[in-house]
Amino acid sequence: MEFDWSLITKGNAGWITVIGMGGVFVALLLMYAFISILRTFGRRRVSAAYAVTHAGKPTTTDHNDNSDQEKLAAAIAVAYVLHNQQGLPIINLVSTQQKQNPWRLAGRQELMASLSRSRKPG
Question: In Å, what is the CA distance from 47 to each residue of 2, 41, 52, 57, 59?
Fold first, then answer.
């Protein structure tokens, strides 16, 4: 099947565009519907599996012990850093010397050179 340029030159370009865009739109709608269906089946499976595994078990919160351990570990880490900080240099995140970007300087020089060439003495 060869492409016929006469279809475009005779004024059918609009129809070709509409049909092409419509095909893409329909494909997107079908993908959306497919993903929505998969999502609903996935939720049902997860909720059913959760109900089966947690049926009759009381909910317990074991994360309090973990959070206490995390707080203790954080306190130990802070104490260690503060204890060993005496000989460390302080790093300043803000540069005291402002360095110019070489590309910016080159662009500025080129701009100034072009402006001086375009002006006529007078």
Answer: 54, 10, 9, 16, 16
**66: which DSSP letter?**
H
Determine how many CB atoms are found less than 10 A away from the CB of residue 12. 13
pLDDT digits (tens, 9 = 90+) for 93-117: 666 566 778 888 888 888 888 887 7
Phi, psi of 98 (to 5 degrees): -90, 115
101: which 2 tokens? Answer: 């970007």
The pLDDT tens digits of the residues spanning 25-55 come to 999 999 999 999 888 877 766 666 666 665 5
Residues 6+ apart with CB under 8 A from 45: none
Give the angle 58-61-64 at the CA atoms, nearest 5°.
Answer: 165
Contacts of 7 (CB under 8 A, 6+ apart): 13, 16
